[in-house]
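For this section, I looked closely at a protein sequence along with its fold in token form, which I now present.
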Amino acid sequence: MKRLIVTTAVISALILSGCEQAQQAGESNETQAQHQTSQALPMITQSSLDQIAQSLKVNYQLVTNIPTDKCDKEKADGACFEVLLSLTANTEIKSKDWSIYFSQISPIQSYESDSFSVKHINGDLHRISLKDDFAGFEKGETKTLLFRANFWSLSETDALPNYIVAADNLTAKVIESTKTVINPDTGLEVLPYVSPYTDEVKQFKRTHSDKTQWLTTERLFERNQAVTKHRADIENVIIPTPMQLTSQAGTLDITQGLALNWHNVALTDVDAAIQRLASLGVVLNPKGVPLNLRITPDEDAKIGSYQLQVASEGISVVGVDANGVFNGLQSLAGLKTIGSNHLPLVEVNDEPHYAFRGILVDVSRNFHNKAFILKLLDQMAAYKMNKLHLHLGDDEGWRLEIPSLPELTDIGSKRCFDPSEQTCLLPQLGAGTDSNSGVNGFYSVADYQEILVEAKRRYIQVIPSLDMPGHSRAAVKSMAARYNKFMAKEQPEKAEKFLLHDPEDKTVYSSVQYYNDNTINVCLESSYHFIETVMKDVKAIHSEVNHPLTRYHIGADETAGAWVESPACKAFLAKHNAQIAGPKELGAYFVERVSNMLADLGIEAAAWIDGLEHTNPNNMPAVIQANAWHPLAWGGHQSAHKLANYNWQMVVSSPDVTYFDFPYEADPKEHGYYWASRQINTRKMFNFMPDNLPVHAEFWLDRADNAYIADDTVKTDESGKIISAPMNKGVKFLGLQGQLWSENTRTEATAEYKIFPRLIALAERAWHSANWAVPYNYEGFKYSQDTNTFTDEKRKLRDTAWFDFAHTIGKKELPKLELGNINYRLPTVGAKIINGLLHANIAFPGITIEYRLLEGEWQKYTGPVKVDSQVSVRSVSHQLDRYGRELVIENIEQTKLNN
């Protein structure tokens, strides 16, 4: 769907106009009597608007995902879902000329209502307006709006909070019934105005061919049985798994603590690791067990390699560098079991599999504060992860103070209700009206430098990302406000110095997130002056705390068909027609130019694969990081291999498994998006073989749980040109990165819930090369459910390794996360009624299970127990202060019959 780029003035007019004529097909013809009724309503006052915000009850009910003949066949491949939006007035509402603004991720195609019309504004923002014949609400009256939106809605968290009631010249207010509340058990936000999704046919699946199964308690029970029956000895297990570990009989008592002998290791090299040990109860004591630290350089060894020995006479850690000693101490912490002062006797020889072991955290869509990042750094270091890709700029927010351009945070870090966007951005993603709310904010220079300092103490490189040229609306609007400010002062030279859009551009386009004004104009020299100024400021911020900015992520992804009608671009193309054939090549030109600009500043460029694959490798710097994010089920291995064959540094970021904003399980109450995968639990992350992307077609399914084929053989077009091919012999990936995108991750608690414990499995796959993984076939191969390169023997090795890993998480690692105050996801409980007895189990043995009958008291589950009514189950944290999501087994008698 394409829409016209609109200026600030036009956006303001669109939003504030209370008399715009509805143009949707199927609206009722207004009668003279209705018109007179509408005219009789008084204009809304502030007190009336406040009353609407307080008393109007909104209900959001998904009707169906099954497309009908009313779906727009030209949009979303003919797919659409229907929502019934009900508005009930608890008190009489007799006023006109007010509107409701709300966020709906999928744009609305059409609607039906006697009282309201609805219009897409920009991005996810929509407006509900009163029809001319609107006659007000009687007390207790309900009015409805049935709308159809693109694609599907499979999760209750697809709806977004904070509907806003607004009117000309009045203060907009959030409708109370659409605000979030915090579930006291899970710590997550809940949307009370959304009706539960319960229909497996109409609400749970995308299409009739969707084979996804709802993860019920019974299915969970069957899945958990193997891990529950496994008997694991986890005392000498370290996560991530070392390259080599041998153990001996006996243990070392560290009740008296550890006596450190530093040798050639400086305290500042490892103080964060020492603090980690202390947080787990391992104290320093001159009279304690000797702990000898030493650096023994080895030029042939990988950075961060180490040896650890826990013997009856003491402990030694030898690293090839200070990072190695640090990692060895983290492995020592990995041996520690909370509540025990005995360590197993082991010898460890270890090195990382990948040099790049990272996670992306999006703080742009919804801000996550400094305290959250500092906690994350602690846990990253604990599991030997070393790259924090901090996504600081996107359409919905700019989160880093840039001293040279204060407008970026003065305006771009806030969303509120300012239609002109001269003081803040539009309230996308259900941001509400409060510019000081938790979803808004930015890191000051001091905040960001503290993050850099703490990251460096943990051998973590911070890679900032300020997405461009697409995903740049926050920057574009901030610089537009700056332009307006200086034009008003009659200072056009200052106004245009950092301008990112062409005011005369009439291009009609829509980004993937449905923005029509989110792309930096790549034909303006002021755009490059802006980028250079920002990068020089960021580089200086890094340098001041001795955390050099050596790599920067451009983003460069999902650039829609912008610039086509821009006069600036037409002039630019006419001037450079020998080098650039047309508008479609402008994106590649931008990436090439910015990459070389960064190289001139001593900064290596990184970008998403779709922003890079159209560039000319001959025009790019020698060192380029490419993040491969195309779904494996859609042939994602092909683009990854193509760019890896350029000898670029490929970081695997496959959304099928590494996108932590996706749900853990297939259940409408599970939080997250699902465009590439409906379920990414910790085990799926553990099962990943990142060295061999196409092999997953043998045992994974696509997003609708259907089999797919991954063809990694040479493919050519009709002219014989190679379209795709295997990786060249000897080519390897640089590393692995998990992603937390934050469109509907509004709180720090939700962010931690989504990251943990999946991050532990991510660290395992980034650090350790599993003996069950299928090596990459450089000759090429066509993988499917019918091939068997992942043999039964390898499957058994993997499953056994997972069972040990799951026991270790449940019994050793989750208690450590609790000590770190991490709001990790407690797994839902598997349960089944067999012969009248409740049987229950859990994905991570060691976690307590509770049950209750009807609405009775919760009781600890210790074994099969007789039940004769509806029963609920949940998991409990080790500290007994937090609970997993409650599941209900309702039909006891039917369950008995099935058994």
In short: The radius of gyration is 29 Å. The chain has four domains: 3-190, 244-350, 356-680+726-769, 830-898.
